[in-house]
Amino acid sequence: MSLLKEPDFGTPARPGDATTELTIDGVAVKVPPGTSVMRAAKEAGIDVPKLCATDNLEAFGSCRLCVVEIDGVKGTPASCTTPVRDGMNVRTQNERLGKLRRGVMELYISDHPLDCLTCSANGDCELQDMAGVTGLREVRYGSGVDAGANHMDAPTDSSNPYFDFEASKCIACSRCVRACDEVQGTLALTIEGRGFDSKVAAGAGVSFFESDCVSCGACVQACPTATLQEKSVVELGMPTRTVLTTCAYCGVGCSFKAELRGDELVRMVPYKNGGANEGHSCVKGRFALGYASHPDRVLEPMVRDTIADEWRTVSWDEAISFTARRLREIQAAHGQGSIGAITSSRTTNEEVYTVQKMVRAVFGNNNVDTCARVCHSPTGYGLKQTFGESAGTQDFKSVEDADVILVIGANPTDGHPVFASRMKQRLRQGAQLIVADPRRIDLVRSPHIEARHHLQLAPGTNVAIINAFAHVVVTEGLVDREFVESRCEDFDAWESFIAQPEHSPEAVADITGVPASEIRAAARLYATGGNAAIYYGLGVTEHSQGSTMVMGMANLAMATGNIGRRGVGVNPLRGQNNVQGSCDMGSFPHELPGYRHVSNDDVRDIYEKLWGTPILNEPGLRIPNMFDAAIDGSFKALFVQGEDIAQSDPNTQHVFAALGALELLVVQDLFVNETAKFAHVLLPGTSFLEKDGTFTNAERRINRVRPIMAPRTGKQEWEIICEIAQAMGYPMHYDSAAQIMDEIAMTTPTFAGVSFGKLDELGSIQWPCNVEHPEGTPIMHSDKFTRGKGRFMETVYVPTSERSTRKFPLILTTGRILSQYNVGAQTRRTANVAWHPEDMLEIHPHDAEVRGVSDGDMVALSSRVGRTELRAKISDRMPVGVCYTTFHHPVSGANVVTTDSSDWATNCPEYKVTAVQVDLIVATSVVAVGNR
Amino acid sequence: MSGVPSYVRLANEIAAQFAHRSPADAAVAIANHVKTTWDPRMKRALIAYAESGATDLSPAAALAARHLA
Ligand code: SF4
Ligand code: SF4
Ligand code: SF4
Ligand code: FES
């Protein structure tokens, strides 16, 4: 069996040096102070029997199976709750202890169904293991159904689509409750009743599905018995082998053990040693996998001459030669620059690298862009200008040292749930929270967490707020002069700029809608509250001043010295699993891999020599430029790798017109998505379960993606790219994904030390990884900034031109929900739809009332570019005048109304601000369903 | 916003970010930004548009276009 079972030390590790020395069963061991005797024993190679303890939860001390004897200590203390002391002498095994343990086990077993052989957890049950370990041979009180009063008839709750709660098997160890509290931070479970009557409950009288449970699965993983069990294990049986891989949903980049039975995937279990997630996950990564085997998947290539024709299923050879021939014909007719490609943040670094290489070396232009254009391109631009590197500054773990956490335009509990759990752990320990967001996100008030300040700013006024923060810092003497003088440049000019009265909280209060006193208090807290860390999302970048705002946050962090150590920094919460990587790999039309400008002769020289072909020294088209050029006739063919631009890009009508104008559209995807409706070639793609390669998460962590099965399409995506290149007359060949990474490392200084071999050895690597940092760089800019000195940039607030008018009096902003993922191509094809069957328009009670709209009514949502219909949900999460929707379902098509307004520096669309009107269609008064 | 070609709108949006600088300074900054991030066909179109004397381009953007020419 190669099922990977990580060792369980029983209680969490304690920080610090191993200075406390004790003896356990005659073995000397040294551990950090505060460590439990149980953990120390495990460090010494001694397993103490246990049931209620597990090492990602604080000890609870309820089962008393872990009792030990300690010289000089009366009785038999529980080793999980007893901390070590210098000179302790501990015994974990003798007759007395054995008897005590058997007594404990007898009680448990007497109230437990004895159907081990047919139980779904057979072979993976700690109760079963402990019965063996303790040598239990008889149960004096009767057992199973023969016992006296018992819980054998307790009902099973199957309401969750992914796991069952079989209450009759519960031993009330409370591991699930503590996992929900401590690991996930949702506090959905309680132990109801006392003594014999105690039982696990998901809220008062409701099922798991109806409760606050977010289906992260932490409780299922923590449960030592079959009580909480994945439905897939019940159906398919216990897995027998493990493949370590990485989640393909969001930018947190959780590591998973894919557990299989033969070749069948049984379940995903988050990996304890995963750098990003340390054993935790969310509902998507753990459970939402059904799309990979969904019947909608396209597994064979298809072509057609015009989009009015039916698709023809063809061989790979035909699809590839058709694609190559058409691309060359179009170039011959319309010029070298008439074709291009879009890379995807859903695919691996190696796949992205080959696509940009095809564009530069084979198409002979720089018309390559990536879907990061529409999400985090301002991050790349803003952080490069100020710090010198287009990436977040910290690792996720760093949040453990933050004293003040400033969350701007991000909704981590929905968008980046596993990181949110970490952040919430730190907040529950007492770190202060400031939230700047028009919407009252869950983090503002959740169990044991309350934001000190919620700055409920008007959409589009981020820069005004961040400037006001900086104004307070500069004018109230809160600048970290030593940091600024030694580490930064252009400070004086910036200081006099930001000190101007127009940036004061009082001057921007009316613009932002946030009282000046609130801004001042929040800014003082950020500047003086200890380590201050900024976390931000698309609510920062997807604005007409997205790049300006990123620079504004960088200014603030530098001015207060909050850069270059743990607990601080400027941290983008990246959307897609490989946004960071796809940008790193040279997907931008002006940058070669490693963010090096195409005009840089030395850099071009590296690739020209290796690739044996000249590279253009001028930038190519960005995605919106491609659309414009398609409409004006200078751009004729587009290769789209794994992205549904027809659904995800703004101003749908404009996108449709552009796609419709192309002579050739090649789509590489799992499904016939909305974009494929305009395509001439559909090249079936691979799911992450078939891919071999790497993803890079939001903390620059390169994680391995390992295939659990051969590509269902017969080819890896990078192989297809190589074959198109070859058919176009350019020799491009790799034997493996590892070889592509070797080329990346050879040509890109920040990746110089990266290889599949090293990734396998270290688990993951945070770039830069090179001679100075052979094992990677968790925290950037610690001694000096990548660009040398950190540069202060003047950030003028320029109001967006997208403003509410008499005709469109409301402002629409958009976001995501936990259970669905972006355009939903994957999550809509899983049981996750149970939580979010449709997109809803959240509208403030006041705005709803004046329009006669009630909860559940269908409403028309219109902007100056389009109109769509969806159901209203009355909510006071937004201020009056602002409404909100998600964009996971094509039928509601939120992007029908978003406009082509964009960030001035990067053309990242302004999804977060659209002037709209909402009108009642029919008063159905259906109670809103599912939108939690 | 509609009616003008997109490169004109984009150039004006860039110009708005540098409106606090002197026109000469702003033009240099705009020209630099365009040079490092725009496809040549868009640059050419912008230059031609500025040369045609059309008035939709902000003065700083028009000056920047002349630097690019
Ligand atoms: S699945 Fe997660 S949120 Fe739901 S009860 Fe279990 S630990 Fe809590
Ligand atoms: S459900 Fe599992 S983890 Fe929770 S108390 Fe029961 S046995 Fe323990
Ligand atoms: S947090 Fe993101 S990476 Fe982790 S399991 Fe969820 S979707 Fe996957
Ligand atoms: S494992 Fe120590 S009391 Fe349960």
UniProtKB/TrEMBL annotation, chain A:
Q: Determine if NAD is one of this entry's keywords.
A: no
Q: Which residues form the 4Fe-4S Mo/W bis-MGD-type domain?
A: 240-296
Q: Under the GO molecular function aspect, what terms does this record hold?
A: 2 iron, 2 sulfur cluster binding; 4 iron, 4 sulfur cluster binding; formate dehydrogenase (NAD+) activity; metal ion binding; molybdopterin cofactor binding; NADH dehydrogenase activity
One GO BP on record is: respiratory electron transport chain
Cited Pfam families: Fer2_4, Fer4_7, Molybdop_Fe4S4, Molybdopterin, Molydop_binding, NADH-G_4Fe-4S_3
Annotated 4Fe-4S ferredoxin-type domain residues:
159-192, 204-233
Q: Is Flavoprotein found in the keyword set?
A: no
Per UniProt, residues of the 4Fe-4S His(Cys)3-ligated-type domain are 96-135
Q: Which family does it belong to?
A: In the C-terminal section; belongs to the prokaryotic molybdopterin-containing oxidoreductase family.
Q: What is this protein called?
A: Formate dehydrogenase alpha subunit
Which source organism does the UniProt entry give? Kribbella kalugense
TrEMBL record, chain B:
InterPro entries, sorted = Formate_DH_dsu
Short name of any one Pfam family annotated for the protein: FdsD
Record-given protein name: Formate dehydrogenase delta subunit
